[in-house]
Amino acid sequence: MPKKERESFDVQPHTHCKVCGRPIPLGQVYCSRECAEKDRREQRRSMTMFAVYMGVVAIIFIVMILLTQHLR
Prior knowledge:
Layout: H1 3-8, E1 15-16, E2 23-24, H2 33-71
Antiparallel strand pairs: 1-2
């Protein structure tokens, strides 16, 4: 786009939906309830996966301690 056209292009202050990227008014996070719910589900899934990961790490750590105690 030529420089003159870019300068005359008027963009209102806005932000973008956290989920889908659509332009939304300043101060909002989501463009719709569907996007808000989708993000809530994704956050819940992410927290569950983190808890599972930490559980596996803890189990491996406990098994390693028990094995080192057993080998003495």
